[in-house]
Design a protein that fits this description.
Structural class of chain B: mainly beta
Structural class of chain A: mainly beta
Number of strands of chain B: 11
Order of helices and strands of chain A: EEEEEEEEEEE
Helix content of chain B: under 10%
Helix content of chain A: under 10%
Number of strands of chain A: 11
Strand content of chain B: over 45%
Order of helices and strands of chain B: EEEEEEEEEEE
Number of helices of chain A: 0
Shape of chain A: globular
Shape of chain B: globular
Distance between the termini of chain A: 36 Å
Strand content of chain A: over 45%
Largest sheet of chain A: 7 strands, mixed
Largest interface: A-B, 25 and 22 residues
Largest sheet of chain B: 7 strands, mixed
Oligomer: heterodimer
Distance between the termini of chain B: 40 Å
Chain lengths: 107, 121
C-alpha cells in the first residue's frame, strides 16, 4: 500500500497568514493526489484534484502543487473559515489511502 | 444539487451485522463510481470499499475484505454496504462518497453526512 505522510500534523496561524501543508507519498504517484478540507462534525469537502486543479467554488487562495512523491497545499491568505483539518489522498492505485491530516488552528 | 443520504448505522455487538444504505438525489448516480469511506472517532479518513458505475466491479480495503460487501441498485439510485462479522475496530462514521467520474479512484466529489456505526457489547 502507498503510505501518505502529511506535515505538520497541526499548526497555529493567524488570519492573513500564508500556510503551507506538505504531503509525501511512499512511492511515486505522478500527480494523482487530491486534497480535502474537513470541519468538525462535517463531511470532508473536495478542494483540489490531481495535485493542482481547484474544484469549482473553491476560493483561489487555495492552491496545490507537486508531482512524484512530494506535494503541497498552500493557502495564500488564511481566512477565518479556513480553520479546519486538511487531508491529502492518493488516487494512483488501490487501496486508496489518505494522509493523517493537518489541523489548522487559530493562533 | 446532488445530495447523498446515508442510513442504517447504529449499535451492534461484536460479530453482528449491519446494512448501510445511501440514496442519491439530484443526479443519476449510475454515471459515477461510488465508495464508502470511514472515520473512527478522533481519527483520520480510511477508504473502505468502492464500486464501478455499473456495479460490475467491486474493491475492498484489506481490513474489511471477506466481511463487507458493497452493492448498488441504479434503478433506485441507492448504494449499500453489508457489514458482517463486525469488530470493535469497525466503529466509525461511514461516509457514502460519489467520485467525480466513472473512475473508481477519481476524486471524491460528493459526500454524504455520514452514519455512525458502533460495535460494542
Amino acid at each position: 500500500d502507498i503510505q501518505m505522510t502529511q506535515s505538520p500534523s497541526s499548526l497555529s496561524a493567524s488570519v492573513g497568514d500564508r500556510v503551507t501543508i506538505t504531503c509525501r507519498a511512499s512511492q511515486s504517484i505522478s500527480t494523482y493526489l487530491n486534497w480535502y478540507q474537513q470541519k468538525p462534525g462535517k463531511a470532508p469537502k473536495f478542494l483540489i484534484h490531481v495535485a493542482s486543479n481547484l474544484q469549482s467554488g473553491v476560493p483561489s487562495r487555495f492552491s496545490g502543487s507537486g508531482s512524484g512523491t512530494d506535494f503541497t497545499l498552500t493557502i495564500s491568505s488564511l481566512q477565518p473559515e479556513d480553520f479546519a483539518t486538511y487531508y491529502c489522498q492518493q488516487s494512483y492505485i488501490l487501496p486508496l489511502t489518505f494522509g493523517g491530516g493537518t489541523k489548522v488552528e487559530i493562533k | 444539487e446532488v445530495q447523498l443520504l446515508e442510513s442504517g448505522g447504529g449499535l451492534v455487538q461484536p460479530g453482528g451485522s449491519l446494512r448501510l444504505s445511501c440514496t442519491a438525489s439530484g443526479i443519476t448516480s449510475s454515471n459515477y463510481a461510488m465508495n464508502w469511506v470511514r472515520q473512527a472517532p478522533g481519527k483520520g479518513l480510511e477508504w473502505v470499499s468502492g464500486i464501478s458505475d455499473s456495479g460490475a466491479t467491486t474493491y475492498y480495503a484489506d481490513s474489511v475484505k471477506g466481511r463487507f460487501t458493497i452493492a448498488r441498485d441504479n434503478s433506485k439510485n441507492t448504494l449499500f454496504l453489508q457489514m458482517n462479522s463486525l469488530r470493535a475496530e469497525d466503529t466509525a462514521v461511514y461516509f457514502c462518497v460519489q467520485t467525480r467520474s466513472s473512475g473508481i479512484s477519481d476524486g471524491f466529489d460528493v459526500w454524504g453526512q455520514g452514519t455512525m456505526v458502533t460495535v460494542s457489547s
